[in-house]
Amino acid sequence: MSTDQSQRSIRCLVAKVGLDGHDRGAHVIARAFRDAGFEVIYSGLHKAPDEIVQAAVQEDVNVLGISILSGAHNTLVPKIIEGLKEYDAFEDTLILVGGVIPDDDKAELKALGVAEVFGPGTPMEETVEYVRQNAPER
């Protein structure tokens, strides 16, 4: 990795979508991203897919981390991806999903455009390094 890549500013939106009220993991990853030097925006709880899309577009983020534990990932994540495409923001945004996602659903999410799915217990260093290596340039 070049020095320029490790020093560039990476803007991340950590988003909680739907009725999922469990936000401890989102807070942990937001803090890890902040400690890694990333700019972090946290959506707060209970956001609709459209609200997350609007925040990602308005904040011009490189990375959208969607935290979801409700089991509605196959419904809500595609709506977010569709919204990003409508604003021509999909190609320039690294989309990550975190939470309890069944293995069978991970391939489907990746086929839709999710770059990676991180489950419980993933080391923070692994997630941070993935973002550093894969976040699109702005």
TrEMBL record:
UniProt cross-references to PROSITE patterns, sorted A to Z: B12_BINDING
MF terms (GO), sorted A to Z: cobalamin binding; isomerase activity; metal ion binding
Top-level lineage group: Archaea
Xref: SUPFAM superfamilies: Cobalamin (vitamin B12)-binding domain
InterPro entries the UniProt entry points to: Acid_CoA_mut_C (IPR006159), Cobalamin-bd (IPR006158), Cobalamin-bd_sf (IPR036724)
Cofactor(s) for this UniProt protein: adenosylcob(III)alamin
Domain B12-binding: 9-138
Keywords linked to the UniProt accession: Cobalamin, Cobalt, Isomerase, Metal-binding
Protein family according to the UniProt entry: Belongs to the methylamine corrinoid protein family.
PANTHER family given in the database record: METHYLMALONYL-COA MUTASE, LARGE SUBUNIT, METHYLMALONYL-COA MUTASE, MITOCHONDRIAL-RELATED
Stated name of the protein: Methylmalonyl-CoA mutase, C-terminal domain
Protein's organism: Haloarchaeobius iranensis
